[in-house]
Amino acid sequence: MENVPSLRERNIALIGFMGVGKTTIGERLSKKLYRDFVDIDKVIEEKYGMEVSEIFRTKGEEEFRRIEREISIDYCKNKRLKILSLGGGAYTQDEIREACMEYCIVISLDLTWDSWKDRLSLIIDNRPVLHNKSMEEIEELFQKRQSTYNLNSFQVKTDSMNEEEVADEIVSLLKLGWEWYQPYIVD
Ligand code: S3P
Q: Within 10 A of 171 (CB to CB), how many other CB atoms are there?
Protein backbone atom coordinates (compact mmCIF):
# COMPACT_ATOMS: atom_id res chain seq x y z
CA MET A 1 0.00 0.00 0.00
CA GLU A 2 1.42 3.37 -0.99
CA ASN A 3 0.86 6.61 0.83
CA VAL A 4 -2.28 5.57 2.73
CA PRO A 5 -3.93 8.64 4.28
CA SER A 6 -4.83 8.93 7.96
CA LEU A 7 -8.50 8.59 8.83
CA ARG A 8 -8.95 12.35 9.19
CA GLU A 9 -7.30 13.07 5.84
CA ARG A 10 -9.30 10.57 3.86
CA ASN A 11 -11.70 11.81 1.23
CA ILE A 12 -15.36 11.19 1.94
CA ALA A 13 -16.77 9.25 -1.03
CA LEU A 14 -20.53 9.43 -1.50
CA ILE A 15 -22.01 6.52 -3.40
CA GLY A 16 -25.51 5.35 -4.28
CA PHE A 17 -27.97 5.04 -7.12
CA MET A 18 -28.66 7.88 -9.56
CA GLY A 19 -30.90 10.51 -8.04
CA VAL A 20 -30.41 9.65 -4.36
CA GLY A 21 -28.96 13.12 -3.73
CA LYS A 22 -25.18 12.61 -3.78
CA THR A 23 -24.54 16.05 -5.29
CA THR A 24 -26.92 18.07 -3.12
CA ILE A 25 -25.88 16.32 0.06
CA GLY A 26 -22.21 16.47 -0.94
CA GLU A 27 -22.44 20.25 -1.38
CA ARG A 28 -24.01 20.62 2.05
CA LEU A 29 -21.38 18.39 3.60
CA SER A 30 -18.64 20.42 1.97
CA LYS A 31 -19.88 23.56 3.76
CA LYS A 32 -20.30 21.80 7.10
CA LEU A 33 -16.85 20.20 7.01
CA TYR A 34 -14.99 23.06 5.23
CA ARG A 35 -13.86 20.71 2.48
CA ASP A 36 -13.99 21.04 -1.31
CA PHE A 37 -16.72 19.17 -3.10
CA VAL A 38 -15.89 17.26 -6.29
CA ASP A 39 -18.55 15.71 -8.52
CA ILE A 40 -16.63 13.11 -10.55
CA ASP A 41 -19.14 13.26 -13.43
CA LYS A 42 -18.51 17.02 -13.66
CA VAL A 43 -14.74 16.43 -13.76
CA ILE A 44 -15.29 14.00 -16.65
CA GLU A 45 -17.54 16.48 -18.47
CA GLU A 46 -15.02 19.28 -18.09
CA LYS A 47 -12.10 17.13 -19.20
CA TYR A 48 -13.90 15.85 -22.32
CA GLY A 49 -15.92 18.99 -23.04
CA MET A 50 -19.14 16.98 -23.29
CA GLU A 51 -21.98 15.94 -21.04
CA VAL A 52 -21.98 12.36 -19.75
CA SER A 53 -24.97 11.52 -21.96
CA GLU A 54 -23.04 12.75 -25.01
CA ILE A 55 -20.04 10.61 -24.04
CA PHE A 56 -22.38 7.60 -23.85
CA ARG A 57 -23.82 8.47 -27.26
CA THR A 58 -20.62 9.21 -29.13
CA LYS A 59 -18.04 6.97 -27.42
CA GLY A 60 -20.23 4.27 -25.87
CA GLU A 61 -20.72 3.04 -22.29
CA GLU A 62 -17.53 0.97 -22.21
CA GLU A 63 -15.39 4.01 -22.97
CA PHE A 64 -17.33 6.05 -20.39
CA ARG A 65 -16.57 3.36 -17.77
CA ARG A 66 -12.87 3.46 -18.66
CA ILE A 67 -12.78 7.25 -18.25
CA GLU A 68 -14.82 7.01 -15.04
CA ARG A 69 -12.37 4.42 -13.69
CA GLU A 70 -9.32 6.51 -14.51
CA ILE A 71 -10.66 9.72 -12.99
CA SER A 72 -12.35 8.19 -9.93
CA ILE A 73 -9.20 6.27 -8.97
CA ASP A 74 -7.02 9.32 -9.53
CA TYR A 75 -9.19 11.40 -7.18
CA CYS A 76 -9.44 8.67 -4.54
CA LYS A 77 -5.70 8.11 -4.51
CA ASN A 78 -4.17 11.49 -5.12
CA LYS A 79 -6.47 13.94 -3.39
CA ARG A 80 -7.01 14.46 0.31
CA LEU A 81 -9.72 16.00 2.47
CA LYS A 82 -12.30 16.19 -0.35
CA ILE A 83 -15.95 15.28 -0.53
CA LEU A 84 -16.28 13.14 -3.66
CA SER A 85 -19.54 12.28 -5.36
CA LEU A 86 -19.12 9.16 -7.49
CA GLY A 87 -21.37 8.27 -10.41
CA GLY A 88 -24.01 5.67 -9.54
CA GLY A 89 -22.23 2.92 -11.49
CA ALA A 90 -18.69 3.70 -10.32
CA TYR A 91 -18.71 1.57 -7.16
CA THR A 92 -19.75 -1.48 -9.17
CA GLN A 93 -16.32 -1.40 -10.85
CA ASP A 94 -13.96 -3.51 -8.72
CA GLU A 95 -10.95 -1.24 -9.16
CA ILE A 96 -12.85 1.89 -8.17
CA ARG A 97 -14.33 0.13 -5.16
CA GLU A 98 -10.88 -1.03 -4.07
CA ALA A 99 -9.45 2.50 -4.40
CA CYS A 100 -12.39 3.87 -2.39
CA MET A 101 -11.83 1.32 0.36
CA GLU A 102 -8.14 2.03 0.53
CA TYR A 103 -8.16 5.83 0.38
CA CYS A 104 -11.62 7.08 1.36
CA ILE A 105 -14.38 6.82 3.92
CA VAL A 106 -17.30 5.49 1.90
CA ILE A 107 -20.84 6.64 2.67
CA SER A 108 -23.71 4.99 0.84
CA LEU A 109 -26.87 7.06 0.52
CA ASP A 110 -29.55 4.49 0.90
CA LEU A 111 -33.08 5.10 -0.35
CA THR A 112 -35.84 2.48 -0.69
CA TRP A 113 -37.25 1.71 -4.13
CA ASP A 114 -40.65 3.07 -3.02
CA SER A 115 -39.20 6.48 -2.30
CA TRP A 116 -36.82 6.46 -5.24
CA LYS A 117 -39.30 5.57 -7.99
CA ASP A 118 -41.12 8.90 -7.68
CA ARG A 119 -37.88 10.69 -8.60
CA LEU A 120 -37.45 8.87 -11.91
CA SER A 121 -39.18 11.48 -14.09
CA LEU A 122 -36.94 14.21 -12.64
CA ILE A 123 -33.67 12.52 -13.54
CA ILE A 124 -34.26 10.26 -16.53
CA ASP A 125 -33.46 12.74 -19.32
CA ASN A 126 -29.72 12.88 -18.69
CA ARG A 127 -29.25 9.36 -17.32
CA PRO A 128 -28.59 7.19 -20.41
CA VAL A 129 -28.39 4.02 -18.29
CA LEU A 130 -32.11 4.35 -17.59
CA HIS A 131 -33.17 4.93 -21.20
CA ASN A 132 -35.21 2.31 -23.09
CA LYS A 133 -35.85 0.34 -19.89
CA SER A 134 -39.18 -0.67 -18.40
CA MET A 135 -39.97 0.15 -14.78
CA GLU A 136 -39.35 -3.52 -13.92
CA GLU A 137 -35.90 -3.42 -15.52
CA ILE A 138 -35.01 -0.22 -13.69
CA GLU A 139 -36.12 -1.75 -10.40
CA GLU A 140 -34.05 -4.83 -11.14
CA LEU A 141 -30.95 -2.67 -11.73
CA PHE A 142 -31.73 -0.67 -8.58
CA GLN A 143 -32.06 -3.79 -6.40
CA LYS A 144 -29.05 -5.51 -7.95
CA ARG A 145 -26.78 -2.60 -7.17
CA GLN A 146 -27.80 -2.29 -3.51
CA SER A 147 -25.66 -5.21 -2.34
CA THR A 148 -22.61 -3.64 -4.01
CA TYR A 149 -23.27 -0.25 -2.43
CA ASN A 150 -23.37 -2.01 0.95
CA LEU A 151 -19.84 -3.41 0.59
CA ASN A 152 -17.43 -1.73 3.01
CA SER A 153 -19.53 1.41 3.33
CA PHE A 154 -21.46 3.23 6.02
CA GLN A 155 -25.10 3.19 4.99
CA VAL A 156 -27.24 6.20 5.75
CA LYS A 157 -30.95 5.58 5.36
CA THR A 158 -32.37 8.70 3.83
CA ASP A 159 -36.10 7.97 3.31
CA SER A 160 -37.38 9.92 6.28
CA MET A 161 -34.86 12.78 6.26
CA ASN A 162 -34.43 15.94 4.23
CA GLU A 163 -31.05 16.78 2.70
CA GLU A 164 -29.97 18.97 5.62
CA GLU A 165 -30.77 16.21 8.09
CA VAL A 166 -28.89 13.64 6.03
CA ALA A 167 -25.82 15.90 5.90
CA ASP A 168 -26.02 16.44 9.69
CA GLU A 169 -26.32 12.69 10.24
CA ILE A 170 -23.21 12.08 8.14
CA VAL A 171 -21.26 14.76 10.02
CA SER A 172 -22.18 13.11 13.37
CA LEU A 173 -21.20 9.71 12.04
CA LEU A 174 -17.83 11.00 10.81
CA LYS A 175 -17.04 12.90 13.99
CA LEU A 176 -17.80 9.84 16.07
CA GLY A 177 -15.51 7.71 13.90
CA TRP A 178 -12.69 10.27 13.86
CA GLU A 179 -12.82 10.70 17.64
CA TRP A 180 -13.13 7.02 18.33
CA TYR A 181 -10.31 5.86 16.10
CA GLN A 182 -8.00 8.86 16.01
CA PRO A 183 -8.60 11.19 18.94
CA TYR A 184 -6.65 14.45 18.90
CA ILE A 185 -3.93 14.31 21.52
CA VAL A 186 -4.44 17.04 24.11
CA ASP A 187 -1.49 17.89 26.42
C1 S3P B 1 -24.57 6.28 -13.91
C2 S3P B 1 -24.80 7.31 -13.03
C3 S3P B 1 -24.58 8.71 -13.38
C4 S3P B 1 -23.50 8.84 -14.45
C5 S3P B 1 -23.80 7.97 -15.61
C6 S3P B 1 -23.95 6.50 -15.25
C7 S3P B 1 -24.88 4.88 -13.48
O8 S3P B 1 -24.19 9.46 -12.23
O9 S3P B 1 -22.24 8.50 -13.93
O10 S3P B 1 -24.98 8.47 -16.21
O11 S3P B 1 -24.48 3.93 -14.16
O12 S3P B 1 -25.53 4.71 -12.43
P13 S3P B 1 -25.21 9.89 -11.03
O14 S3P B 1 -25.33 8.72 -10.13
O15 S3P B 1 -24.52 11.03 -10.38
O16 S3P B 1 -26.48 10.26 -11.66
A: 15
